[in-house]
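Long-time lurker. I teach an intro course on protein structure, and each term I like to show students one example going from raw sequence to a predicted 3D structure in token notation. This year I'd like something fresh instead of my usual example. Would anyone be willing to generate the tokens for the chain below so I can use it in lecture? Attribution to the forum is fine with me.
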Amino acid sequence: MNIVLLSGSPRKDANTDRLAAAFVRGTESSGNAVTLFRTSDMEIGGCKGCAYCIENPGICIQKDDMTQILDALKNADALVLASPVYFWSVTAQLKLAIDRTYALLRAKAPIKRAALLLTCGSRTGATIAMFETMCEFSGWENSGVVVASGLRSPDAIDEHVALKEAEELGRSFK
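-- Reply from a regular --
Happy to contribute to a lecture. Here you go:
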């Protein structure tokens, strides 16, 4: 299985990256290939709503780092989103990439499954509902959501049960 993981954390090697790494360990142990994109390290502009991608399925008029992600998604069996919850949603860095996947709407990307990995202090807000709506609209199987809550510092996840849950979720991808 070919999996694309989009991580929206601006904090390198902190809670969200560690949760994503646990998922990667699990899925790679099942023989899957994972391509990880740290959206906070990429130059991704917001969707312009120009509809170029409707006339040219799978191609965005903008030529930025999102091109790499779109190319990877065109060959992906699954998409995994990982983000801290900032102000009741995914980070702006991840949301930019999510919005730009609109370019694949008519491209018929092979994605069949999706999962969500979240880190947060207390509440997930509307983040899970957004993910569930994405799955429903796109026809993807919602393969699971892992939430590491109660995190108050960048390294608070070290002994959190969510690390094991993310690794188990990764192993379930076959």
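Some talking points for your students: The chain is about 35% helix and 20% strand. The chain has a mean pLDDT of 95.
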